[in-house]
Write a structure and sequence with these properties.
This protein is an alpha/beta fold. Helices cover 34% and strands 26% of the residues. The protein has a single domain, classed as 2-Layer Sandwich (BirA Bifunctional Protein, domain 2). The strands form 2 sheets. An 8-stranded mixed β-sheet has the order 7-8-9-10-6-2-1-11. A 3-stranded mixed β-sheet has the order 4-3-5, with no helix packed on it. The protein is globular.
Amino acid sequence: MDDRERPRRPLTATWRGRIAYRDAWVLQKALGDRRAAGEIDDVLLLLEHDAVLTLGRQADEGHVLASSRELRRRGIELIRVERGGEVTYHGPGQLVGYPILRLGDRGILVRPLVEALEGAMIGTCAAYGVTAIPRPGHPGAWIEGARGRPPRKIGALGLRIERGVSYHGIALNVDPDLRDFDLIDPCGMPGLVSTSIAEELGRSAEPPSTAVVEAAGRHFAAAFADALGAPLQWQAAEAVREAAAEAITSAAGTA
């Protein structure tokens, strides 16, 4: 049987709603363990977070502009994680996507995965009438600056690969409070201006609507599955949570 005749592996997407960053972190790791063991298919977690700052494994804390006191006052945690990249803000109104993929099963390397994620962010922007572009050497999705002005960042990307399985992923600004990006040098780039789909369209919801972010997530999942050449299927959040709970229980039993 050649590659054209081989059944295409599905991509299972699930919308998790708004959850705390640390809870999503545990969920990713648990699903990653099961994916590495071949117990589940590839999963795309789609969600949004409460306000949080995360630092990549080699990120410089000097790019966090707010003081510890200010972050505590605002209830914003600063967490160092295993992904690549610099400091990133997550918060309500931002679509977060975590692809839990076993790369070898799809015959892809990290660079094509990055390009697929970038393309899906760009495609999601296009679905709303916003033109985003890739920027060589700077992962993510960007809006080209007019009249010689620098580009604005609309989507961030940072991955981790362990045992051939990806986790962490993307953050696409649908309609977050852009003032929160003033807490940091986004992606470690002083002066970088962050933007959003709502900002580019000249409209915003107050407060950000989770339903709007979920709708963007459906566009993203379809575009990402298409880039992978994978059939897309949706699964209820409860089923994914149960799969993760099994992995967590198993890990605890062998500790």
